[in-house]
Design a protein that fits this description.
With about 260 residues, this protein is α/β, with parallel strands linked by helices. About 35% of the residues lie in helices and about 20% in strands. It is built from 9 helices and 15 strands. The strands form 4 sheets. A 6-stranded parallel β-sheet has the order 5-4-1-13-14-15. It has a 5-stranded parallel β-sheet with strand order 7-6-8-9-12, covered by helices on one side. The longest helix is centred in the N-terminal third of the chain and has 12 residues.
Length: about 260
């Protein structure tokens, strides 16, 4: 297997709510020593890119901001290109400072775009019902990712994808997803790496949004048994990952490094 660049998920692969995945920082250092370019593509929306890099460095990972592609940054790029100047209602935990150039408004200001970010306490019945009505009135429907769950400090928790599915069912429309598992997300990672899809691998803990979605784009998929991984996810998956490893610590050996 010839791999010239790696796209990495962050939560569940490099770190968890309990701290860094054992051996992951050493594995990243080993990959860098071998000359492999790395890019993180994350669905995390509650922290800015600078905050994520600072936290990664505290956990022993030497990443820079230009090596991290956040769901918020991908969404902002899409909106600037496709909905420039339009009124956007944001629901969820994304930070406005990560949405430079986006005109954010309230539900009472006739939004032209609804933007769904990570689930938080703003996902109340009244707010979601307001979003539903805006969608019925013709607002464009955009979501930062489709993850249905994540591992919070208190345990497995619902994510925005679960609410997104309900809104799609209610309004009879599919959202445009700008982050994982959308092909554009992996294409952005490949452009940042400067590597063709057939010479790149995606490492993730979500078999659908990370691994199988990347494989559909031509990347090699590597599923780790950390983070949100569950055996039943692998058993019930629509297809098989190219590779399954115990954790990020095992990746250098898989790659023969």
């Amino acid at each position: 297997m010839q791999i010239d660049g790696l796209v990495l998920d962050m939560d569940g692969v490099l770190t968890t709510s309990a701290g860094p995945v054992p051996g992951a920082a050493a594995a990243v250092a080993r990959l860098r020593a071998a000359g492999l370019p790395l890019r993180i593509v994350t669905s995390t929306t509650s922290k800015t890119c600078a905050e994520m890099v600072a936290l990664l460095r505290e956990d022993g990972f030497d990443f820079t901001e230009d090596e991290v592609l956040t769901a918020s940054a991908l969404a902002a790029s899409y909106l600037r290109e496709r909905h420039a100047g339009e009124r956007v209602f944001l629901i969820g935990d994304a930070r406005p400072e990560d949405l430079a150039g986006i005109r954010l408004v309230g539900l009472d200001e006739a939004p032209e775009v609804v933007l769904i970010s990570g689930a938080d306490r703003s996902f109340t019945y009244d707010a979601l019902n307001g979003v539903y009505r805006a969608l019925l009135d013709g607002a464009a429907f955009v979501a930062m990712h489709r993850n249905s769950s994540w591992i919070a400090p208190a345990g497995p928790s619902l994510e925005a994808g679960a609410y997104l599915a309900a809104l799609e069912l209610a309004c009879g429309r599919r959202a445009t997803v700008t982050g994982k598992p959308a092909p554009a997300c992996f294409e952005a990672g490949l452009r940042a790496l400067g590597v063709a899809a057939d010479r790149a691998a995606m490492v993730g803990d979500d078999i659908n949004s990370d691994v199988l979605a990347a494989q559909a784009c031509g990347l090699t998929g590597v599923l780790v048994r950390t983070g949100k991984f569950r055996d039943e996810h692998l058993t019930n998956a629509a297809a098989a990952p190219d590779h399954v490893i115990g954790s990020m610590a095992d990746l250098p050996e898989l790659l023969g490094l």
